[in-house]
Amino acid sequence: MVMGVKRRCRTVSVLRQVLTCAICIIALVALLSVHVQDITKLPSDASYKLPTQKDMGYQKLRRERSWTQEYSPPHLSEDPPNAHKLNGANGSLDSEKLWKPPPNRDYVPCVAPSSSYASPPESRGYLLVDANGGLNQMRAGICDMVAVARIINATLVIPELDKRSLWQDSSNFSNVFDEDHFISSLANDVKIIRKLPMELTTATRGVKHFRSWSGIDYYQEEIASLWEEYQVIRAAKSDSRLANNNLPPDIQKLRCRACYEALQFAPRIEAMGKLLVDRMRSYGRYIALHLRFEKDMLAFSGCTHNLSLEEAEELKSIRENTTWWKVKDIDPVEQRAKGYCPLTPKEVGIFLGALGFPSSTPLYIASGEIYGGESRMDDLQSRYPLLMNKEKLASVEELQPFINHASQMAALDYIVSVESDIFIPTYSGNMARAVEGHRRFMGHRKTILPDSPCPSF
Predict the structure, then answer these.
(1) DSSP-based three-state secondary structure for 89
(2) Any alpha helices (H) in 41-159, and if so which ranges?
(3) Per-residue pLDDT tens digits for 139-198
(4) Which domains does the chain show, CATH number per domain?
(5) Of 37, 131, 224, 366, which sees the most CB atoms within 10 A?
(6) pTM of the shown model
(7) CA geometry: angle at 239 spanning 411 and 118, to 5°?
């Protein structure tokens, strides 16, 4: 009986071993068959060898390229991505998010004077101002001079606008700005008059180039001391004369009141600007592009990317013959590598497509004449057919009062840009900063800055 049991146990044990061996053999044969199948796909003269470090690096590079091809912006020849979805690291970004204004983070306009702010003290003399530069450079300078007049207890005479710059604009202050509103809205801050009193028109004037980026001490001491010799002080330039920091809060608030409340455009410019806005709105939500690809900007910055040799020489000649531009010898390749050049129209189209804006998006071009003419706009026009500007939105008759007046034409662009759903400057300049600041003041309207490490949505 016992012997029979032992015999059956040995039999079971042997069977288990046989089955285990059979399973192992089947698995091994399966693996070898796959391997042999892969090898048979190689050419008959191929010899197998272990991958080198170089081969492994190449395989890694292929994987990285595969990833970047999947997630990189579309190629130049491709159409912009679907308007309703933009694939990225954080998933999909629908069209509504593209247009959505940024949160205000509880920041609100701060222009109301403090309780200790008093009416302007008795004037010690008159301040004449020669505003220099283009529209937005003059605008910022005038706001600075309003604050300076308050600091040195001066009566401000309506500033003279620049008539000698590249644009050769003959416009006076009242042609561009609402003079009556400017005077009345600042009555509690600074006394402003239209002209110097007749008896002082021939008086000796203290002509001064106010030092750039100067604080309140400079004006209270060095400039105010000129009243001991002169009744009239003339500021030969207005741009960048006042420091941005370490000024009393009420002086900073005064600058804001001057810039965003007092310095309104002349009524006919405001009316024409609002008409252009209404016509852009008829196409739907629109983007205002400050496309700074203009002759003066390219000549000043020395940027010649994608230009012909003849065009590059023309820009170089303009720069060399403009006496007040200090830098003459510029390496255009180095300039572009450092990010000091405006985006080309073609690059703007690529940028907008990469963000996810569809080809049906209305674009307003806020700029002067694009260097190279309409042909340089062809690529952007092919990507975004709804490409508008002043000349396309308004008739020749409607624009006639503003033509040949660069500051007035720029004012129209300013209004359409401030009122746009999205503002995108292609170069950080005076208008880009002025419009961006104005849009923040009016409720944090959306601005996208292409030159930021991460575009500010």
Answers:
(1) coil
(2) 53-71, 95-99, 135-151
(3) 999 999 999 999 999 999 999 999 877 667 899 999 999 999 999 999 999 999 999 999
(4) 97-104+266-293+342-447 (3.40.50), 125-262 (3.40.50.11340)
(5) 366
(6) 0.77
(7) 95
